[in-house]
Amino acid sequence: MSSALGDRGPIVVVGAGPAGALMALYLARQGHEVTVYEARPDIRRVEISAGRSINLALATRGIVPLVDVGVIERVDAITIPMRGRMIHADDSTEPVLQPYGTRAHEVIHSVSRRDLNAILLDAAEATGRVGIEFASPVRSIDLGVGTLAVDGPGNSARTVPFGTVFAADGAGSELRKAIVAANGGAAETDWLDHGYKELQIPPASDGGFRLDPNALHIWPRREFMLIALANPGGDFTATLFAPNTGEGSFASLSDSEAVSRFFEQQFADFAALVPDLVEQFFDNPAGRLATMRCRGWSAGDRAVLLGDAAHAIVPFHGQGMNLAMESARALDRHLRSRPDDVAAAFAAFEAERKPNADAIADMALDNYVEMRASVVDPGYLIRRELALELQRRHADRLSPRYNMVMFSTMPYAEAAARAARQSEILGELTSGRASPAEVDMDRAAELVAGLDPLPELDPLARPDALSV
Ligand SMILES: Cc1cc2nc3c(=O)[nH]c(=O)nc-3n(C[C@H](O)[C@H](O)[C@H](O)COP(=O)(O)OP(=O)(O)OC[C@H]3O[C@@H](n4cnc5c(N)ncnc54)[C@H](O)[C@@H]3O)c2cc1C
After folding, report:
1. Is the preceding peptide bond at 339 cis, omega within 30 degrees of 0?
2. Fewer beta carbons under 10 A from the terminal one: N or C of the chain?
3. Is residue 50 very low, low, confident or very high in pLDDT (cuts 50, 70, 90)?
4. What is the pLDDT of residues 202-224, one digit of tens each?
5. Would you kindly state where each structural domain of the chain is located, as residue ranges?
6. What is the DSSP secondary-structure string of 323-362?
């Protein structure tokens, strides 16, 4: 028998990260009362430990839901636009900017995950319909009876009843196993053999930035790379991505001397900006990276997976949170279009989002190679330059893959399919050419005319949503 949301009892969101906080806000806007259980203390009131300060690239798919729920002005105050990749090829040459696009709004925005999350938590609470219980990890779910086992705050343990649960408890979701098992689904985690470590570049002595803040800095070194994104306080959060074992790996950087030597040899200009580099390296934790694909995102009308809990991807396309927020908006839409049948709304949500989550998972893996190696490869540079030139000439039909992912709202699976076709065209046009100037532009126009017109942007994808 079909049911409407709330019919079966209390509505609960588990996890108050970007996906859970945004979903709670959407549900409150539908008129529901929502309780959120979050394992950690309130991020608005506690210091974040060193090495866990992550700043993220926010792009169109994440911006649209923020416009939708009315918080974009607050977000604008905490973001820094990045116009392209600043490539630090080696120490003998000046860094070079590779612009992301040809239009003013084709920029991504550096934002602190904590500050963005805080805005969403404030907005959810301001509805008067969302109660958030922090320091309250959910230990297990009983889908048959409809109860959650919740620890804390403190040493207390409780059993709380629910009607429907939105499980937004992140990549390592505690609830996923039970939800997926309930409908014969499956989850699979592919660990990457590369990990990451954050390092902080402090502000200059006058409080200013030590590097251009309006670019995403990359030190590509083929097998590993360093990146840095600016924060409004004048500092940068840098992240080293490297193999876990072998040469140039985290395992090989086991003592101070090895770390100093590695940074001096590979990233001397960066090392000069970070006086306590070695201390930070050993103080900050190393993180692991994985792609988690799963099917069976919901258990009837009782529970649904959301955000990284449903689709965790590696961070190399800067899309995990953007994807999670786009998914929350899609789930809101499905629930509103099937108000009397929550189970059907959840099933339709998965049918729409799963192929797209799988597509961006693959593109994110591909983009690691692009960032750490291709960006300094002459063949790649010609194709990228030509793609931007063709976008300038035929903006209604062609857009580089990066731009379709970051600056459009077309389904990720469509972006991947279009990118594959475009790649063939770019390959044909650049074959044997040393620069885009040598490309036969009449043939290019002919090939591009064979592509379907690009879909319209979502009306909320306003180019002026954030300052550029
Ligand atoms: C190094 C790195 C760089 C990244 N860069 C980008 C980027 O540039 N752009 C981008 O879009 N994405 C990026 N991401 C991905 C992004 O961080 C995630 O996709 C995003 O945080 C997912 O949001 P979420 O709410 O689904 O999960 P999370 O942010 O993981 O939130 C889950 C929440 O649930 C809570 N929780 C967990 N278990 C329980 C439990 N049992 N009970 C109650 N609460 C629980 C957690 O404490 C947490 O608050 C990056 C990730 C990494 C690791």
Report:
1. no
2. N
3. low
4. 999 999 999 999 999 999 999 99
5. 11-79+110-189+290-369, 191-288, 377-449
6. HHHHHHHHHHHHHHHSTT-HHHHHHHHHHHHHHHHHHHHH
Between CA 67 and CA 76 the distance in angstroms is 11
Beta strands 80-82 and 138-142, pairing class: unpaired
- Whether residue 247 is predicted with pLDDT greater than 70 in this model: the reply is yes
For residue 319, which amino acid is it? Q
Least confident of 138-147, 369-378, 403-412, 438-447: 369-378
Domains 11-79+110-189+290-369 and 191-288 share a fold: no
The highest-level CATH class for domain 191-288 is: alpha beta
- Tell which atom from ligand 1 comes closest to the C-alpha of 136: 43
Pocket test for ligand 1, best of 43, 66, 308 (most atoms within 8 A of CB): 308
Q: How far is the CA of 358 from the centre of ligand 1 (A)?
A: 18
Residue 61 burial (CB count, 10 A): 26
CATH topology of domain 11-79+110-189+290-369: FAD/NAD(P)-binding domain (3.50.50)
